[in-house]
Automatic annotation (TrEMBL):
GO molecular function, one term: transmembrane transporter activity
Annotated protein name in UniProt: Solute carrier family 43 member 3
Entry keyword annotation includes Transport: no
Signal peptide: none
Native source organism of the sequence: Cherax quadricarinatus
Keywords in alphabetical order: Membrane, Transmembrane, Transmembrane helix
Transmembrane segments: 17-37, 113-135, 142-162, 168-187, 199-222, 234-257, 278-301, 321-348, 369-389, 395-416, 428-447, 453-477
Length: 514
């Protein structure tokens, strides 16, 4: 049973703006904190977490940015990165033979951190289907209180992780992932606070979560200032509890919906269609594939980033600089996430100029085509860079990530809101997230495969990602989209004829006054 709320509930402009600002700030701080893993793992390596796994482990010279005469391990052909940039420099990569610091290339340690990140990413959206139904049945307040509680526990556990007790990181990342995803999904409906700019608002809320990946940069700066990581975590835990208290400024169940895309002529906010009709459509399958492959490419890039930049660097200081750049890049994503939504809103408004009601609805569904395509291109460019072990490739990849990372979630969310009935939105968002996250566990065996066959493992992911271009391309087939709109909105010829006559009458009215 869907949660019930007063259908006459109206929110003042001041309250709507306040709720929206809260959603923006929360998303920017906490919604995707786990994706700042490349920055956090550098800090954890410096502190020596899991460095005990490196005792007795001899790092192959092929995994380092240049040859080390002290290590005489042969170089397998598939691991020869051919990084000759550092050969002429009068310095060596700071390898700790006792593995006290743990910032060097250590296979077992890298695999353990890769496993933690894989579990965290899986936990981020695997329960998404449950969160979608929780929002649908229990409402906004219950979901947000649960999210705030999990975030608080996550930061507390991260503060408890030490070199002697490193496994607290597992629990920490799991709770940060679960809480962050619940918070992200709960604020998605805040786009309905401004119906005329819904796609822009949804894109802003869903894309701005990427900025939260920069939160972990605070540990690097506070460490240089002499502050312990545990003290910073206590502060973040206290800050995250505000989400619980701010929830009471919002409606108990959901944000009131005013919909232009809904089943017609039924009342706004209702749907006469079963969820399976949306879920089993061709558009749904193509979008699920697109969403998963783009997220997989982004997550593997983030998981590989520390290993990649370390192998591309001539010193630990240089590797640390690239780690900081990763966090700064995530801050910049705030400005790019809403662009796709703003363009989609523009195309939707432009569709309103056509005299045909069916044509208008088809053009609205096709509105996200260009944002989806640009996001795919940016993801491809970002992933291709990890084949090249050079600073220029790192900088290019970060520029591409600034587009790919926020837009994958933002444009996907806006597209789902347009393409399918509004009543299906929360549940579809959760289902797609769960499906993608279950499949996301493949990134760990892919990481292990890449440890032995680097180029082959990443080439496979790149080829699969290119196939995801079918999702935006299928929107260009107008007859297919026309059929989809008729099924979605349950239209018939009489309704379309009446709507077209009414629209023509509205257009001619101002002319008669003249």
């Amino acid at each position: 049973m869907k949660c019930q709320q007063d259908p006459q509930l109206e929110l003042s402009l001041a309250r709507r703006v306040t709720i929206f600002v809260i959603g923006v700030v929360e998303s920017m701080l906490f919604a995707g904190t786990v994706f700042g893993w490349p920055q956090l793992v550098h800090v954890l390596k410096v502190e020596g977490l899991y460095s005990d796994l490196c005792h007795g482990f001899s790092t192959p010279s092929s995994l380092l940015p240049h040859a080390h005469t002290s290590l005489n391990t042969p170089t397998p052909p598939h691991q020869a990165f051919n990084n000759t940039r550092c050969h002429g420099l009068n310095n060596t990569f700071e390898i700790s033979r006792s593995h006290i610091v743990g910032v060097e290339q250590c296979g077992p340690q890298d695999e353990r951190f890769a496993l933690i990140f894989t579990v965290a990413v899986g936990c981020y959206s695997v329960p998404g289907v449950l969160v979608g139904y929780l929002l649908h049945h229990a409402g906004l307040r219950v979901t947000r209180v649960s999210a705030g509680t999990m975030l608080t526990m996550g930061f507390l556990f991260l503060g408890m992780a030490t070199k002697e007790s490193p496994n607290w990181v597992f629990a920490s990342m799991i709770f940060l992932a679960l809480g962050g995803n619940q918070l992200r999904l709960s604020v998605m409906q805040f786009g309905d606070l401004f119906p005329l700019h819904r796609s822009t608002a949804i894109s802003l809320l869903s894309g701005i979560y990427a900025a939260s990946a920069a939160l972990f940069i605070i540990f690097q700066y506070t460490a240089s200032a002499g502050l312990q990581r545990s003290h910073v975590c206590w502060f973040l835990a206290a800050l995250s509890t505000l989400s619980i208290f701010l929830t009471f400024l919002m409606p108990v169940h959901h944000i009131p919906v005013q919909d232009n895309y809904e089943t017609w002529p039924s009342e706004p906010g209702t749907s006469q269609q079963p969820l399976r009709r949306s879920l089993l459509s061709g558009s749904s399958f193509l979008h699920t594939y697109w969403y998963f492959l783009n997220l997989l490419a982004i997550n593997i890039y983030q998981q590989t980033y520390n290993v990649w930049v370390t192998a591309s660097s001539c010193s630990v200081r240089e590797a640390g600089w690239y780690s900081i750049l990763f966090s700064y890049s995530n801050l910049v994503t705030v400005f790019f996430g809403p662009l796709g939504g703003a363009f989609t809103d523009y195309m939707v408004r432009r569709a309103g100029n056509t005299s045909s009601e069916l044509r208008r609805r088809v053009m609205e569904v096709q509105a996200p085509f260009l944002p989806l395509l640009v996001t795919s291109l940016a993801t491809t460019a970002m992933y291709m860079c990890i084949f090249i072990f050079h600073p220029a490739a790192i900088y290019i990849s970060l520029v591409a990530m600034v587009l790919a990372r926020p837009c994958t979630i933002a444009i996907s969310t806006a597209y789902i809101r347009i393409r399918f009935p509004a009543d299906h939105f929360n549940r579809l968002l959760g289902i797609y997230g769960t499906i993608s996250s279950v499949l996301m566990f493949l990134q760990y065996p892919q990481f292990v495969w890449a440890q032995n066959m680097y180029y082959a493992a990443h080439a496979m992911v790149l080829a699969l990602q290119v196939l995801s271009y079918m999702n935006p391309i299928h929107l260009l087939f107008t007859p297919l989209m026309r059929h989809a709109v008729i099924l979605r909105d349950q239209l018939d010829e009489d309704q379309l004829r009446e709507a077209n006559i009414s629209k023509e009458h509205t257009r001619e009215k101002p002319q008669r006054r003249l």
